[in-house]
């Protein structure tokens, strides 16, 4: 007997508003990531979850066709097509990576730069956290932390979606240039919202520990996600369209979706905690006088 899954069924509890991973999905995942943080991360940050979740959509907003310069800069920050480089490992810095791209005669903006965008935004957050440690009552600094955290969330969550890591990002590319399973990217992006995942369920029982090394941890997560590309295509025909009214329930698809969503939450939360711990060792020169410049 076919098992029909009605979209109205709440598999994960309360319905989360939104449409697909790049909109409502990012919002849900980010709320969960902040909720999963340990109490050593400052209260203002944990209480700022709605603002962080709002800001997690901004990297996609920057890809607007009406702002071509921002679009050109922002677009490559969301992916990296791993197959385009035959190197065994990826370098840790953006410019080392760009140098490697040119050695392989590959344009960096064509292959993508997501691990480097993520590492850089996490370090920006660490600097903002260091400012907070020095000037804890400054509201501008607190807001800056929340804004930067939104960008960290977006790139971290993109990197946990395997189709952001491959040349086969929206269909298995064939020798003649045609694609099998074209449209699969949107289906995977839609799973968080389609399955009605909630921040409460995604944050539950998460074990959050800081990364021992920021870029090694990011690159390790990248390779783990890239290894799942074939599995995504094995599931492909069974993954529902995000706007499907009913669906023949598939436990493997659900398990994959929950795994990737929970990993997105864990990884994003890890990066927040890592930034907070990194900030402890950061100091500023005496000429930087935030409190004096910002006024009472």
Care to give the gist of this entry?
Helix content is 55%, strand content 3%.
Describe the model.
The chain has a single domain, classed as P1 Nuclease, CATH 1.10.575.10. Mean pLDDT is 91; it is low at 6-20. A hairpin with a 5-residue loop joins β2 (172-173) and β3. The protein has helices spanning 21-35, 43-47, 49-55, 58-61, 68-74, 94-103, 108-111, 114-134, 139-159, 184-189, 191-194, 199-203, 214-226, 229-235, 251-279, 290-294, and strands at residues 4-6, 172-173, 179-180, 246-248. The strands form two sheets. It has a two-stranded antiparallel sheet with strand order 1-4. Strands 2-3 form a two-stranded antiparallel ribbon. α8 (114-134) packs across α15. The chain is built from 16 helices and four strands. By secondary structure, the chain is mainly alpha-helical.
- The whole-angstrom Rg is 20 Å
The helicity comes to 55-70%
* CATH evolutionary superfamily: P1 Nuclease
- Largest beta-sheet details: 2 strands, antiparallel
Query: What percent strand?
Result: under 5%
Give me the count of strands: 4
Structure class? mainly alpha
Strands in their spatial order, largest beta sheet: 1-4
Contiguous low-pLDDT stretches (5 residues minimum) are: 6-20
Order of helices and strands: EHHHHHHHHHEEHHHHHEHH
Quick tags:
mainly alpha, 296 residues, P1 Nuclease, two-stranded antiparallel sheet
Topology readout:
Elements: E1 4-6, H1 21-35, H2 43-47, H3 49-55, H4 58-61, H5 68-74, H6 94-103, H7 108-111, H8 114-134, H9 139-159, E2 172-173, E3 179-180, H10 184-189, H11 191-194, H12 199-203, H13 214-226, H14 229-235, E4 246-248, H15 251-279, H16 290-294
Helix pairs in contact: 1-3, 1-9, 1-15, 3-9, 8-9, 8-13, 8-15, 9-15
């Amino acid at each position: 007997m076919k098992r029909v899954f009605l979209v109205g069924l709440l598999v994960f509890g309360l319905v989360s508003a939104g449409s697909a991973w790049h909109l409502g999905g990012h919002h849900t995942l980010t709320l969960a990531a902040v909720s999963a943080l340990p109490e050593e991360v400052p209260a203002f940050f944990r209480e700022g979850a709605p603002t962080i979740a709002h800001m997690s959509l901004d990297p996609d907003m920057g890809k607007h066709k009406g702002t071509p310069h921002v679009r050109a800069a922002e677009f490559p920050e969301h992916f990296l097509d791993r197959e385009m480089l035959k190197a065994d490992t990826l370098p840790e810095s953006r410019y080392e990576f760009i140098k490697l791209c040119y050695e392989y005669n590959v344009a960096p903006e064509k292959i993508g730069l997501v691990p480097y965008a993520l590492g850089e935004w996490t370090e920006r957050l660490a600097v903002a956290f260091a400012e907070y440690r020095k000037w804890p009552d400054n509201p501008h600094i607190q807001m800056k932390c929340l804004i930067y955290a939104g960008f960290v969330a977006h790139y971290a969550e993109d990197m946990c979606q395997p189709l952001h890591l491959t040349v086969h990002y929206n269909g298995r590319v064939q020798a003649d240039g045609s694609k099998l399973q074209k449209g699969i990217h949107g289906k995977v992006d839609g799973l968080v919202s389609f399955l009605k995942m909630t921040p409460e369920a995604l944050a539950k029982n998460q074990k959050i520990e800081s990364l021992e090394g920021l870029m090694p941890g990011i690159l390790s997560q990248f390779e783990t996600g890239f290894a799942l590309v074939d599995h995504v295509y094995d599931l492909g025909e069974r993954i529902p369209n995000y706007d499907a009214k009913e669906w023949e329930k598939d436990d493997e698809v659900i398990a994959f979706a929950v795994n990737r969503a929970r990993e997105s939450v864990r990884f994003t939360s890890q990066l927040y905690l890592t930034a907070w711990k990194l900030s402890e060792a950061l100091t500023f020169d005496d000429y930087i006088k935030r409190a004096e410049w910002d006024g009472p």
